[in-house]
Amino acid sequence: MRRMVTLCAAVTALASGAAVLQLKLAVQEKAEQVEGLAAQIHDDREAIRVLEAEWAFLTTPRALQEKSIKFLALMPPTADQVLEDPTPIPFRPRGIEAESDPGVLLPMREEKKSKKKTDDRAKGQSL
Amino acid sequence: MSAAAAYKRLMMEGERKSALEVARNRLMVAVILFFAAFSVMMIRTVELGISTPETKQVAERKIVIPPIKVARADIVDRNGEVLATNLETSSLYANPSEIKDPKLVAAKLVQILPELPLSEVEAKLSSGRKFVWIKRKLSPREKWEVNALGVPALQFQREEERIYPHGRLAAHTLGFVDVDGNGLGGVEHFFNDRLKDKTRTGEPISVSLDIRVQYALTDELEAAMSAHQAKGAAGLVMDVNTGELVAMASLPDYDPNDMRGSGGVERFNRATQGVYELGSTFKTFTFAAALDQGVASLEDGYDATKPLRVARFTINDDHPKNRYLTLPEIFAYSSNIGTAQMALDLGAERQQNFLRDLGLLDPANLELTEVGSPLYPATWRKSSIMTISYGHGIAVSPVQLASGIAAMVNGGRLIPATLSHDDQSWRPGRQVISEGTSRKIRQLLRLAVTKGTGGRADAVGYRVGGKTGTAEKPIAGGYDRKALISSFVGVFPMDDPQYVVFALLDEPRGTKETFGYRAGGWVAAPVVKNVILRTAPLLGVAPKREDAGLYQQVALMIEDK
User: What does pLDDT average to in each consecutive run of 10 residues of chain A (127 residues)?
Assistant: First the structure.
């Protein structure tokens, strides 16, 4: 019995020692990884600074205009081509429409809304 | 005998027993000691395994990313586009005492860096010193090529270079820096201490410019300048409600990345430093003063049948109608005679006070050191009253004029022009004219475009209002009839003014397209129109059908003959 206890104690001590060592090594490795990542982030941030400057240089309006003249057959838009409200554009894909404000005239609005919905459906079918 | 023997045996047994006891007790002591020692060792092992030096522990709990160290903060525009930034670069130096064949190395170096003179590089490399600069601020490609030479005596020193990715765009506003990174002009100079503040180099400063609008303005001014062979040009776009300068251009300009060869003419900021007699655009202020102080009302008029004579001057009209003109007509047809008479009714003191109130008699309070002081007569004579009423005899910078005009149209609040962009700081401004007067001025400005001299500025859909200005350049003892300063100040949209657009051309010449005319309405107004057409969608101003009713009442007072 006493022998068993001693043996158990010895084995536990050995095992826990090994586990602690293992843990320490793992933690060290992680810490090094974190340091490496931090250094990587630093380098990336510096690279981003350079890339931002390069992007600004490459997309300076003068360069864009020269490219546009060279590769695109586009004219500046005239006033009647600029729309403030996008609804008059035909065949425009409709996104999820926000719930309109019911306001105080609730029944009237409801009627209108349902009518509009059927309109939309009709449009969808004709497409 | 038996008792004695028994006793003896007992004694023997007792002795043996006690000896055994002692031995066991001693053994127990040893065991406990060993246990204690082993547990100390175990505890120590665990402690060693878990614990790391305290500094390291703290460092690991909080991940510290090494900050990017730059010597100077960035400058960005109102949308966050980089306008000036510091990038790492390398400077090449050599240790000549380690070079065995200076001639060969020099020849190879000059091949890579052709702008260096061969003889000079040779002399440097054979000097036998320990340290010589070869070239500062190499491009990454040059650095790579020098490294590829494989000469260990050639080494690099990390340095920083100020880069302006947009080159010449907004050069006068941004300014430039010297080799050591000290701001020498523009915002770089004005905010030098803030930009170099070591604790804040990570935060960029945001200027009010919008680089897209800046380009549209610069491009149009360049086109007009070359079409009319002008000596120079200036222009700006200002937000009337905040005083922010969305764009400011001065031509000819310079490239802040490479200051070599740019002299005083290029570095001169015509938009803030240059003061000009701006001509008829000043009539806006005369009208505002007269209307605001009740000297005249829109229904009044003045006789403009013949030229006015004052002292040795004669005041003529550029677009003579030779009849009695109503106030809206005087403004739309830009009659000097009518305006001068109105200014006489206003009087010297009120005129002077009004202009001072608008900040036209003091240097503009802008975030630039290149700010010109206005020029005006020391003694305000009768002739001064009359000429100043239509913008002669007083010279102000374009930025002063623009903030004055902004105050005329935005409901009468004078908001000082600014180059810094801050969404939080809304400045109420100082009321200089009443809202009612401002409304009248808006009508007058719109009608000067639809019916008057500014017709070529009418960007369809954007309800432009504005005033032309044409002034002869002053020379010793008079005015030069051949050299003009032609300008146009436009505001859009007139029903809810948002932006002032100003364009100025220095000594333009007439072309076939303008039938030889070179007045503000012919050369500068189209620039403003094009700038508005190009930038209104960027600035969020939608084109609209005009509500003619807004101007009907005043429009009826303008007779077209």
Answer: 88 90 90 90 90 90 91 83 79 68 56 45 41
Angle at the Cα of A81 from the Cα atoms of A75 and A86, rounded to 5 degrees = 130
Q: Which of B206, B208, B250, B280 is catalytic?
A: B280
Which residues are B156's β-sheet partners?
B92
The Cα–Cα gap between B208 and B244 comes to 6
Domain that holds residue B236: 215-555
Judging contacts by C-beta atoms under 8 Å, the chain A residues touching residue B49 are 17, 20-21, 23-24
Nearest to residue B244, comparing CAs of B4, B421, B36? B421
Would you say B478 and B490 are in contact if contact means Cβ atoms under 8 Å apart? no
CA separation (Å) from B327 to A108, A127, B317, B427? 52, 59, 15, 33
Which residues on adjacent β-strands are paired with residue B87?
B161
Residue type, B23: A
Is there a contact between A49 and B85 if contact means CB atoms under 8 Å apart? Answer: yes
Split into its structural domains, chain B has a count of 3
Predicted confidence (pLDDT) per residue in B45-64, tens digit? 777 767 766 666 555 567 77
CB B208 within 8 A of CB B419: yes
- Structure tokens of B93? 């130096």
Look at residue A14 and tell me if it is in a domain: yes
Do residues B201 and B269 both lie within one domain?
no
Bridge-partner residues for B466, per DSSP? B490
Using one digit for the tens of pLDDT, what is the confidence trace for A57-93? Answer: 999 999 999 998 899 888 888 888 888 777 777 777 7
Is the separation of the CB atoms in B273 and B254 below 8 Å? no
- Which of A20, A51, A80 to mutate to probe the B interface, most B CBs <10 Å? A20
| CB B91 within 8 Å of CB B133 | yes
Domain that residue A50 falls in: 2-71
Distances in Å between the alpha carbon of B390 and those of B240, B343, B393, B448? 23, 9, 9, 15
